[in-house]
Amino acid sequence: MRTLVGLLILLCLVSACKKEAPPAKRGARKAPPPAPKLVDRELQEWEKVLGQGVYHTQLRGAFDPFKPFFRETTPEVSRKPLSPLEKWSLAELKLTGIVKKGRHRWALIEDPTGKGYMVKVGTRIGNRGGYVAEIGDSYILVKEKTVDFLGKERIITSKIPLRPTEGEHEIP
Predict the structure, then answer these.
(1) Given strand 153-161, what is the order of strands in its sheet?
(2) Is 96 in contact with 116 (CB distance < 8 Å)?
(3) DSSP string covering 105-152, please?
(4) pLDDT at 151
(5) What is the residue extent of each domain of the chain?
(6) What CATH number labels 84-161?
(7) CA-CA distance, 78 to 60, in Å (whole number)?
(8) How far apart are CA 102 and CA 4, in angstroms?
(9) Residue 16's pLDDT is what?
(10) Which are the contacts of 96, defined by CB distance < 8 A and separation ≥ 6?
(11) Mean pLDDT within 34-55
(12) What Pfam families does this protein map onto (predicted)?
């Protein structure tokens, strides 16, 4: 009997020493299978194109997309102190008379304060850097350099007519 009890104890010891896997937990999920590798066909096409060599563009005469539409103009540095006629716009100045002596002509310009000035061809006039280009029998032409909204310089010619005399006014 002793041998039988010893055998049972030995059998229990041997079976207790055996390592078993821990029991699976309830609700535990198995690891998902690895995702299949995605292939980006468009990326592969671009890699082929870029691997072919350097791409050059011809930009001659093309519009620059980074250039602003409107050019900011910086005020011009005055070359010398402005004359009184350069402080007024052309709309504020009046042509009150024209003097002709031989081949020479002078024009009498009146500013808004009532002061008169004698000008000849080439005299600077107006607040936008204009000059007298021509003195006619009953008008003067003033040319001014301006910059349009696209940044191109243009020359504008303005005609200032002679102020009518009292006899030429219409009486209602």
Answers:
(1) 124-125, 130-135, 139-147, 153-161
(2) yes
(3) EEEEEE-TTS-EEEE-TT-EETTTTEEEEEE-SSEEEEEEEEE-TTS-
(4) 75
(5) 84-161
(6) 2.30.30.830
(7) 36
(8) 156
(9) 60
(10) 108, 109, 110, 116, 162, 163
(11) 82
(12) PilP
For 123-160, the pLDDT digits (tens) are 999 888 899 999 998 999 999 988 877 778 889 999 99
Q: How open is the CA angle 139-160-76, to the nearest 5 degrees?
A: 125
Q: Please state, in angstroms and rounded to a whole number, the distance separating the CA atoms of residues 79 and 73.
A: 17
Residue indicated by tokens 């107006």:
126
Closest by Cα among 120, 74, 77, 112 to 93: 112
3-state secondary structure of 155: strand
Which residues are paired to 157 by β-bridges? 143
What is the distance between the alpha carbons of residues 139 and 29, in angstroms, rounded to a whole number?
99
**Placement of tokens 């005469």 in the chain:** 61
pTM (predicted TM-score): 0.51
Residue 159 CB: number of other CB atoms within 10 A? Answer: 12
What's the pLDDT tens digit per position in 78-113? 556 678 888 888 989 999 999 999 889 999 999 999
